[in-house]
């Protein structure tokens, strides 16, 4: 079964516009021709009636009718028909018997034989009228008028003046031909318009067919609803055009609230989407408070022909991201610990195997005892001083990482970190300590030294961590800018983020960090994290 959907958009538009043009011009043409036919018939009828009235008022005609003088009326009617461009002029007496006719053989015969009309309006009631009929001379429009006597009192006869309808048909045919030409031109113009409009329209919709757009729209809706991040888009007027269920849930809005076409400032008065709409500058990973919720937000302007047509914003609750970050941090810490231990024990096992193969069993036993004693001491310190498994796992991983690099991470045996408040996120704590230890290891290694020192204490109102390296140190003029994002003394890309992250996390926890030269060389970083949650507000 044929369907328009099987055709391409351009073909469909050509057919639709062409058919519309045909229907419109055909309807208008039919109406115009019908109206013209009736108008011409009426005009010719009025003209015939006017001529009939004029002839009925001629004295000579009245006298000839009263005297039944056909010899006078016959040539007179022919002359009058010729003068008025009429097809015929017929005159009859008061009984409807012809006194004059273009054909002599019809003179003396009843007029009703010609057209079936008994002429009653004119002969009986003295009223002129118009008649359309087919007579002996063909189809015609006739105007009939009564002939009154010289006193204008009694009807003595009738005048019938006829104009043939063939002239009307000729005029209608000329107009019909013109109409056909107009219909063909209109169809051609509509097809050209359809081609132009289809090309322009398809360019605007990136060459897609309507069915493809429909499928993309459905896919777009499904995609929006499948995304766990909230998404809201506004147009150039700041009115909401797109949103998903996650946006409604994240912002705590009523699920039955109609958001489409509502001003964004009416729904979210504190939103910054209008700022992006005006400036055109995108916002990435902005932490904001909106609707009493802490969100991480991205805002991106929509551009078309270098003009801002709207803004799209995606956002997610920060606590959800923190939960994911916590899981990733713990996994990374475990992975680092396992990797370091694997490398460390692999190297030791290779060494022990080599000693056994060369017969140095005493040295192998001494190395085993040394490693056992060293790890037992570290594990005992972790158990006694750092009961928190996440922090202890982080420190153990960094210890093994240092040994893998050929360095020593010396943890002060007097350290104590037993009273870590529950409100301090462990993933943020290990991020702070882990970044500082990594920096210290890299600085010490680059200066071809061996030792990094760590001491911890939870005495008093703060958690205090002190990390000292044996690197080249940091110039005093760089102390104020070392925590800026991207600032680093290391070569290559991918550096300058660790200390910046440490400072950001400490600001969130209400803590501080102090940088000063080490006792012998390098730098010492001292971290203070308050135990009380009030200090973080």
TrEMBL record:
<keyword id="KW-1133">Transmembrane helix</keyword>
<keyword id="KW-0812">Transmembrane</keyword>
<feature type="domain" description="Histidine kinase">
    <location>
        <begin position="340"/>
        <end position="533"/>
    </location>
</feature>
<dbReference type="InterPro" id="IPR016120">
    <property type="entry name" value="Sig_transdc_His_kin_SpoOB"/>
</dbReference>
<feature type="transmembrane region" description="Helical">
    <location>
        <begin position="179"/>
        <end position="198"/>
    </location>
</feature>
<dbReference type="Pfam" id="PF00989">
    <property type="entry name" value="PAS"/>
</dbReference>
<dbReference type="InterPro" id="IPR039506">
    <property type="entry name" value="SPOB_a"/>
</dbReference>
<dbReference type="Pfam" id="PF14689">
    <property type="entry name" value="SPOB_a"/>
</dbReference>
<dbReference type="InterPro" id="IPR003594">
    <property type="entry name" value="HATPase_dom"/>
</dbReference>
<dbReference type="InterPro" id="IPR000014">
    <property type="entry name" value="PAS"/>
</dbReference>
<keyword id="KW-0597">Phosphoprotein</keyword>
<keyword id="KW-0472">Membrane</keyword>
<dbReference type="InterPro" id="IPR036890">
    <property type="entry name" value="HATPase_C_sf"/>
</dbReference>
<keyword id="KW-0067">ATP-binding</keyword>
<keyword id="KW-0547">Nucleotide-binding</keyword>
<dbReference type="Pfam" id="PF17203">
    <property type="entry name" value="sCache_3_2"/>
</dbReference>
<dbReference type="InterPro" id="IPR033463">
    <property type="entry name" value="sCache_3"/>
</dbReference>
<dbReference type="Pfam" id="PF02518">
    <property type="entry name" value="HATPase_c"/>
</dbReference>
<dbReference type="GO" id="GO:0000155">
    <property type="term" value="F:phosphorelay sensor kinase activity"/>
</dbReference>
<dbReference type="InterPro" id="IPR004358">
    <property type="entry name" value="Sig_transdc_His_kin-like_C"/>
</dbReference>
<feature type="domain" description="PAS">
    <location>
        <begin position="224"/>
        <end position="253"/>
    </location>
</feature>
<dbReference type="InterPro" id="IPR005467">
    <property type="entry name" value="His_kinase_dom"/>
</dbReference>
<dbReference type="GO" id="GO:0005524">
    <property type="term" value="F:ATP binding"/>
</dbReference>
<dbReference type="GO" id="GO:0006355">
    <property type="term" value="P:regulation of DNA-templated transcription"/>
</dbReference>
<keyword id="KW-0418">Kinase</keyword>
<keyword id="KW-0808">Transferase</keyword>
<dbReference type="InterPro" id="IPR035965">
    <property type="entry name" value="PAS-like_dom_sf"/>
</dbReference>
<dbReference type="InterPro" id="IPR013767">
    <property type="entry name" value="PAS_fold"/>
</dbReference>
<keyword id="KW-1003">Cell membrane</keyword>
<keyword id="KW-0902">Two-component regulatory system</keyword>
<protein>
    <recommendedName>
        <fullName>histidine kinase</fullName>
        <ecNumber>2.7.13.3</ecNumber>
    </recommendedName>
</protein>
<dbReference type="GO" id="GO:0005886">
    <property type="term" value="C:plasma membrane"/>
</dbReference>
<dbReference type="InterPro" id="IPR029151">
    <property type="entry name" value="Sensor-like_sf"/>
</dbReference>
């Amino acid at each position: 079964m044929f369907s328009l959907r099987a055709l391409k958009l351009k073909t469909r538009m050509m057919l639709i516009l062409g058919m519309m043009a045909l229907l419109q011009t055909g309807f208008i043409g039919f109406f115009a021709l019908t109206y013209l036919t009736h108008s011409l018939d009426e005009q010719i009828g009025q003209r015939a009636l006017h001529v009939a009235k004029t002839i009925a008022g001629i004295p000579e005609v009245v006298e000839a009718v009263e005297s039944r003088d056909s010899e006078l009326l016959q040539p007179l009617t022919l002359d009058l028909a010729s003068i008025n461009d009429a097809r015929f002029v017929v005159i009859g007496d008061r009984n409807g018997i012809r006194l004059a006719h273009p054909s002599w053989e019809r003179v003396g015969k009843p007029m009703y034989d010609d057209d079936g009309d008994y002429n009653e309006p004119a002969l009986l009631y003295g009223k002129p009228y118009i008649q359309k009929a087919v007579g002996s001379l063909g189809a015609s429009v006739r105007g009939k008028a009564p002939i009154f006597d010289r006193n204008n009192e009694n009807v003595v006869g009738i005048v019938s003046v006829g104009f043939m309808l063939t002239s009307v048909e000729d005029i209608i045919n000329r107009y019909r031909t013109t109409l056909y030409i107009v219909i063909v031109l209109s169809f051609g113009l509509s097809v050209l318009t359809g081609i132009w409009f289809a090309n322009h329209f398809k360019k605007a919709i990136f060459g897609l067919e309507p069915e493809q757009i429909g499928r993309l729209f459905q896919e777009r809706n499904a995609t929006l609803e499948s995304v766990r991040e909230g998404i809201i888009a506004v147009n150039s007027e700041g009115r909401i055009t797109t949103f998903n269920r996650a946006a409604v849930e994240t912002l705590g809005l009523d699920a039955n609230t109609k958001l489409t076409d509502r001003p964004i400032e009416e729904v979210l008065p504190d939103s910054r989407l209008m700022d992006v709409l005006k400036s055109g500058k995108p916002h990435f990973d902005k932490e904001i408070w909106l609707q009493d919720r802490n969100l991480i937000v991205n805002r991106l302007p929509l551009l078309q022909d270098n003009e801002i047509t709207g803004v799209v914003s995606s956002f997610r609750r920060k606590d959800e991201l923190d939960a994911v970050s916590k899981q990733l941090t713990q996994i990374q810490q475990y992975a680092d610990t396992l990797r370091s231990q694997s490398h460390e024990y692999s190297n030791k096992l290779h060494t022990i195997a080599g000693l056994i193969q060369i017969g140095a069993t005493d040295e192998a036993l001494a190395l085993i005892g040394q490693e056992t004693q060293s790890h037992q001491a570290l594990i005992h310190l972790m158990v006694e001083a750092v009961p928190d498994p996440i922090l202890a796992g982080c420190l153990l991983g960094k210890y093994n990482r240092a040994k893998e690099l050929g360095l020593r991470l010396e943890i002060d045996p007097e350290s104590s970190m037993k009273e870590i408040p529950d409100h301090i996120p462990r993933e943020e704590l290990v991020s702070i300590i882990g970044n500082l230890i990594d920096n210290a290891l890299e600085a010490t290694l680059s200066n071809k030294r061996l030792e990094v020192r760590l001491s911890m204490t939870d005495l008093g109102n703060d958690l205090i961590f002190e990390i000292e390296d044996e690197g080249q140190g940091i110039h005093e003029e760089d102390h104020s800018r070392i925590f800026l994002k991207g600032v680093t003394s290391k070569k290559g890309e991918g550096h300058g983020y660790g200390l910046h992250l440490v400072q950001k996390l400490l600001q969130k926890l209400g803590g501080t960090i102090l940088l000063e030269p080490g006792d012998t060389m390098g730098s010492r970083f001292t971290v203070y994290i308050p135990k009380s949650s009030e200090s973080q507000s």
